[in-house]
Amino acid sequence: QKEVEQNSGPLSVPEGAIASLNCTYSDRVSQSFFWYRQYSGKSPELIMSIYSNGDKEDGRFTAQLNKASQYVSLLIRDSQPSDSATYLCAVNDDNYGQNFVFGPGTRLSVLP
Amino acid sequence: KAGVTQTPRYLIKTRGQQVTLSCSPISGHRSVSWYQQTPGQGLQFLFEYFSETQRNKGNFPGRFSGRQFSNSRSEMNVSTLELGDSALYLCASSLSGPTSGNTIYFGEGSWLTVV
Description:
The structure holds 2 protein chains of 2 kinds.
Chain A: E1 4-6, E2 11-14, E3 19-25, E4 32-38, E5 45-50, E6 54-58, E7 61-66, E8 71-76, E9 85-92, E10 101-102, E11 106-111
Parallel strand pairs in A: 2-11
Antiparallel strand pairs in A: 1-3, 3-8, 4-5, 4-9, 6-7, 7-8, 9-10, 9-11
Chain B: E1 5-7, E2 10-13, E3 19-24, E4 31-38, E5 42-50, E6 53-57, E7 64-68, E8 74-78, E9 87-94, E10 105-106, E11 110-114
């Protein structure tokens, strides 16, 4: 049974700080990794995807992947109150099919 | 470009009834997958359809079924509803091609309450 683990939080950071969200996964054959943001009562929206070891940056967001350690993280720089949401880590092990396994999500609260 | 469209958005059903939910994927997307989200279990994969064929299936009982039409629109059905089926049902679509990657995009979801 594939598993994706995240700290449920809540993770509280002050406005302007760096928020660090972590995720570990159990299946070594996992190919693709994703971070989704979900506001309360809304559906998940894609923030980042990452496929190769290393860092990938997009604006204030940086995803980091370490396949040897089976670890993926998301850094949010200059955190804003509007970043307060639940962040879901997702792993897919099929290049063409969709069989995403989601973590339980980390609730982030950015304090003004 | 229109996003993933799900109908109905909200519905209330009685235990024992059945329900059908509909999903229209992003134009050009051929893969449609369904997920169930509950506070206790989180986001769980139900099944995925590609070119009218079920390609992947999660660990849900046979009461949960789906299908995909030639225009890539999809429906899922839940028969003999139980109280525990109350959840947000999310549809997601993707291009799902060998060079296009497999990123999935979610619709707004259908909130199902079983009473």
